[in-house]
Amino acid sequence: MELLANLQLGFDVALTLQNVLYCFLGVLLGTLIGVLPGIGPVATIAMLLPATFALPPVSALIMLAGIYYGAQYGGSTTAILVNLPGEASSVVTCLDGYAMAQQGRAGPALAVAALGSFFAGTVATLILVLFAPPLAEVAFKFGPAEYFSLMVLGLIAAIVLARGSLIKAIAMILLGLLLGLIGADTNTGQFRFTFGLPQLADGIGFVVVAMGMFGFSEIIANIERRARREVVMAKITSLFPTREDLKASWKAVLRGTGIGALLGILPGGGATLGSFAAYTLEKKVAKDPSRFGKGAIEGVAGPESANNAGAQTSFIPLLTLGIPANAVMALMVGAMTIHGITPGPQVMTERPELFWGMIASMWIGNLLLVVLNLPLIGIWVKLLSVPYRILYPAILLFACIGVYSLNNSAIDVALALAFGFLGYLFIKLDCEPAPLLLGFVLGPMMEENLRRALLLSRGDPTVFVTRPLSLTLLVVAAALLIIVVVPAVRKKREEAFQE
Amino acid sequence: MSISIRSPRDFCAGLIFLFFGTLAAYIARDYPMGSAVRMGPGYFPYVLGILLALLGVVVCIKSLLMHGERIESASLRALSLVLGAVGAFAGTIEGFGIVIATALLVGIGAAASPESRPREVAVLIAFLLALAVGVFTYGLGLPFRIFPV
Amino acid sequence: MAEFFRSHPCPSRRSWLRAVPYVFGAFVAGAALPQDYPSRPIRIIVPFPAGGTADLLARQIGQTMSEALRQQVVIENRTGAGGNIGADLAAKSKPDGYTLLMGTVSTHAINPNLYPRIPYDPVKDFAPVTMVAKMPNLLVVHPSVPAKNVAELIALAKARPGALAFASAGNGTSQHLSGELFKKMAGVDMIHVPYKGNAPAVTDLVGGQVQVMFDNIPVSLQQVRAGKLRPLAVTGPLRSPVLPGLPTLAEAALPGYSITSWFGLYVPSGTSPQIIERLNREANKALANAQFRRRLSDQGIEPAGGTPGQFADFMRAELVKWGKIVRESGARVE
Fold it and tell me: What's the pLDDT score for residue C18?
């Protein structure tokens, strides 16, 4: 059994005291920066890069990888506790996680997120071991046409995110799409909606929009509600999930893991879609979708599992092809070259100890994360009992530092302020920010790939239906659209009759 | 049947959509349009802007027909002080350093809540200053200026 | 002076002599006191995202310089507008030796010729410190393309105008302009397909969605070694040591074709010459490190170095050269 021999090699490398220690250091640091809103893994890994010069390459990469998936873990903590999504993938965790926290159920939400993530991490590591090379080929099957169709599917899924009015949700998606187009157009270099500001040339950062729309606006609304004595501090019921919670979540964890692992393989923003897709799926299969957004535990379990599974499988293009799927992976490529390793298809055969050692370390890292995070839940929940008048200025500060340190740009903080105002307005007007954010993420990718696909097909729009993979995605999108729209229309009609 | 706004929330939301949609389409007109199969940089935003504006109109019309909730009154104190605090941070972080930016942010921000107590705020500022300088500037090595030079 | 003694507990005659110009310089320069330099952390502004070649070069050199200067060297990524944002920030920083810029062929040769409005002057606003590295682009094709060499590629493109597509890391990048110059000189038509950065472009090239790319050599080299892409030529004036069997474009079919990407350290103009000299010396020492040099050359990057004067001459020639390339290729941004 070659596989077992490979795994053995991997664990031999990963289980040396030194490597376990660096793995622990990585996930600990990752958890820390994940919890601090806005300070992302990119900045941290970049800063630590020179510090790893002295380490053996395997240890260095194990630690840096640990920071990445540790940050994914930590990010959900802030999303659940204080409604601050530090990354695109945490947005949907905010929806039900924060609602649970407000009901005094932050403990179970955090625990389910941690356990689900551990399960997802384990499965995804196994997938990496078994299928990494063939799965890597999937990335090449995805051309511009396929990405466009995937984005269409994602947008329709965004409608499902909505709780209230369908029309308003679609309008929010469109607004998000437009905001995403700000900056230089990839295809022509034309500046759009930049109002002469060079800082807008590369568009607005996701964290800037998310911090404003979720973080700042929620703080303002919260202060207001407290002033009116509308908030009754819910009693913390229990720290750990009840039997019912676990029963409700395990299927969500399974589904989330599957979706997240699959989408994580795609280098062009697939991992971002994972948690959104998982949330949509949970809401669609639920017997009572109206619970979602009001503290449904499946709404935390599914996306969190998807998020972590995707974080692991997004290493596939890097490890097997040397092609980075996102900014963190690009840094990992840099780390490898600094250590004299040429990332690429040969790494697996030329440096098996590195390849298998890193994969094995991911499972160990996930285990360490659970061991680290479960006891922390008690502390996090205690944090919520700090009076809000003391808590919110601290949240405000962390959010500002996070936004600023993205690009060391004060303009970003000012932009987040503007989005805070807009977000507050939308709270007052019953417009949900989640579809807007998804539109914001998908918009530029959608337009870019649409135009690129048409450029490559020399203007022939049939590419989207003649390529089988693209066609399949569009058919699924159409089916989803029917599932979403028909019940809504029927409901409207019933309401109209009643009036 | 007189025309009246039955759902103020939807009416205002519709106006916002109409505003942004029209604005986007108006600005996008200046960019090269291209054609549906050879899209220029203006095509996509123009179409999106028109769609958004249309949806805005639909939402507005709906708000005249269907009843909805009133818009809750806004607390200008919370709104202006929280956003003012963020603005103060943005305005001072580069020129005056992290210490002044943090103190201003926490000081102004804390005043947004009617529950805040001056003595607590002073302690909070001291604590968060230590954190901002100790953890973020030294610990994480973020490139902040600490004091105005 | 205290700083100087602390770093050299037992000053020999030679290091005393070395201190003389600093002391003298202090009187001339007035406010800037080079003998104390550096007394606080130095920042290197990198106008491109973390993980790219410019960023990695800055981090590695920064690390070595930090040890030699006994001061922290902080890397600040200020991305945007093809590198113009970071370059502009450096141009408008205090010329006190505490702000450096990792400039590139984009910020100091291409963009000034390409962008209609640019907020800084690449010559007047900066004082060159040293050239850091250069690298050619690599002309690669997907293995399904029947052309086995440059002449065949040109013939193929002539036979079917517009049928081939070439990928780039974005409008106005050296990959884009390499392709445009190729089109012009060979008299062929290919469609330009821009991406956001190298990685997605290479993915689509390996996947066969596009056929041709003039890629930065470190990125495609691995794919070439794994047999996923076929190299046809390098764009530089000389062959690359990592692929010695591969001709230059000039040798193969297009005499006079020469495109090289390069990286160099700058300080804002007005920085005291003593500080520039010190920075130049430390940067050159960092670049002389054998292990560092080998790591770079393994990826097809050629470590450079040299005096500020050499770098200034080189840059002036590049500005003229890229002006011609941009004009001839007809490439435009905004």
Answer: 43
pLDDT band at B5 (very low <50, low <70, confident <90, very high): confident
- How far is the alpha carbon of B25 from chain A, nearest alpha carbon, in Å? 10
pLDDT means per 10 residues in chain C (334 residues)? Answer: 36 40 42 68 88 87 89 83 86 90 93 87 93 94 94 94 91 90 92 87 90 90 88 93 92 91 94 91 92 87 91 93 86 66
Q: CA A417, CA A412: separation in Å to the nearest integer?
A: 9
What are the phi and psi torsion angles at C39 (to 5°)? -105, -5
In 3D, which of C105, C192, C175 has the Cα closest to residue C140?
C175
Please state, in angstroms and rounded to a whole number, the distance separating the CA atoms of residues C215 and C200. 12
Tell which residue, C226, C229, C180, C242, has the closest CA to residue C201.
C229
pLDDT tens digit sequence for B49-61: 999 999 999 999 9
Residues from chain A contacting residue C60 (CB–CB below 8 Å): 50, 53, 338
Q: How far apart are CA A343 and CA A363, in angstroms?
A: 22
Sign of the alpha-carbon torsion through A45, A47, A53, A59: negative
Query: Which residues, 6+ apart, have CB-to-CB distance to A186 below 8 Å?
Result: A444, A448, C170, C171, C194, C195, C196
Indicate the burial class of A298 (C-beta count within 10 angstroms; 0-12, 13-18, 19 or more).
buried
For residues B134 and B141, give the distance between their C-alpha atoms in angstroms, rounded to a whole number: 10
DSSP bridge pairs for C167: C193, C213
Residues 6+ apart with CB under 8 A from A400: A413, A416, B86, B89, B90, B105
Return the structure tokens found at B33: 């349009």
CB-based contact, A51 to chain B, within 8 Å: no
Q: What angle do CA B141, B147, B148 make, to 5 degrees?
A: 125
| Residue of C57, C166, C203, C220 to mutate when probing chain A, most A C-beta within 10 A | C203
- Identify the band that residue A45 occupies on the pLDDT scale cut at 50, 70 and 90: confident
Interchain CB distance below 8 Å, A334 and C228? no
The whole-number pLDDT of residue A100 equals 92
Per the prediction, chain A carries an average pLDDT of: 86
In chain C, what residues touch B141 (CB-CB under 8 Å)? 74
Lowest mean pLDDT among A350-359, A394-403, A462-471, B63-72: B63-72
Q: In this structure, are residues C78 and C119 in contact, taking their beta carbons and an 8 Å threshold?
A: no
Closest CA to C205 of C229, C235, C188: C229
**Nearest CB partner across the interface for C81, out of A198, A323, A408:** A198
Question: Considering CB atoms only, which of B55, B115, B140 is closest to A171?
Answer: B55
Q: Measure the N-to-C terminal CA separation of chain B; round to a whole number of Å.
A: 69
Return the pLDDT at A229. 66
